[in-house]
Amino acid sequence: MTNHSAITSASAIASAVSALEQGEVIAYPTESVWGIGCDPWNETAVLALLKLKDRPVSKGLILVAADEAQVNPFLEKLTGEQRKVVIESWLDRESRATTWLVPLTDDVPIWISGAHDRVAVRVTRHVQTRDLCRAFGHPIVSTSANPSGEPAALDAAMVQQYFNQHVFILDGETDGATQPSVIRDAITGEVLRG
Q1: Residue 15: pLDDT above 90?
Q2: Residue 100: which of 127, 75, 128, 66 has the closest Cα?
Q3: Strand partners, 35
Q4: DSSP states of the chain
Q5: Cα(36)–Cα(148) distance, rounded to whole angstroms?
Q6: Contact assessment for residue 156 and residue 171, using Cβ atoms and an 8 Å cutoff
Q7: Which residue, 7, 23, 48, 140, has most beta carbons within 10 Å?
Q8: Segment 79-116, tens digit of pLDDT
Q9: Spatial CA neighbour of 113 closest among 181, 70, 57, 153
Q10: Residue 26 in contact with residue 63, Cβ under 8 Å?
Q11: What contacts 2, CB < 8 A, 6 or more positions away?
């Protein structure tokens, strides 16, 4: 696997995209903690990520995207009003980042949805992660960079400690948020993680 040293941002993102395209698991900063991710449509990559985390496939995974256009295929079963609430939450920079559970569409593989009838999606506010998703051309998996039961990694050194050479590390900084994203159900409005 590739280990990443500090290089220019555009070059670093290009290297991370290349790693994603080759089926590697990557680590990257998000709004609050470091995440690990991969190409959601590459089953082998997703299973490798789940093995690293010691996380069962049944739990499902979050997809993080650059913009509304990248998540449009996942929002098609929402009403106009539900969709408006979801989109507005991603545009509201004053509140915490929000991940929404939306009804499954045919675009979502079972290794992403797990045992659920919803899929979790978020348009990220983190500039570098947004640039990464945009350069990759579609959403990526986003789950906290830690083995199950361990604290989420807060920096690249912690990622390295957890996963050694098994992930590609995209250097960067979190946005400093002290809590992970809120998770809400787009149909019921229920908050599952506050």
Answers
A1: yes
A2: 75
A3: 28, 144
A4: --------HHHHHHHHHHHHHTT--EEEE-SSSEEEE--TT-HHHHHHHHHHHT--GGG--EEEESSHHHHGGGSTTS-HHHHHHHHHHHH-SSSPPEEEEEE--TTS-HHHHTT-SEEEEEE---HHHHHHHHHHTS-EEEEESS-TTSPPP-SHHHHHHHHTTSSEE--------SSPPEEEETTT--EEE-
A5: 13
A6: yes
A7: 140
A8: 999 999 999 999 987 888 999 999 999 889 999 999 99
A9: 57
A10: no
A11: 15, 19, 24, 168
Query: What is the distance between the alpha carbons of residues 38 and 19, in angstroms, rounded to a whole number?
Result: 9
Query: Token match 């945009």: residue?
Result: 134
Q: Which two tokens stand for residue 116?
A: 């659920």
At a CB cut-off of 8 Å and minimum separation 6, what does 9 contact? 128, 131
Tokens of 30: 């998000």
In sequence order, the β-bridge partners of residue 144 are: 35
Half-sphere exposure of 10 (CA within 13 A, CB side): 0
Pair 137, 150: CB distance under 8 Å: no
Q: How far apart are CA 100 and CA 78, in angstroms?
A: 11
Check residue 105 and give its pLDDT: 92
CA-to-CA dists, residue 145 to 35, 130, 158, 166, 182, angstroms = 5, 18, 9, 12, 17
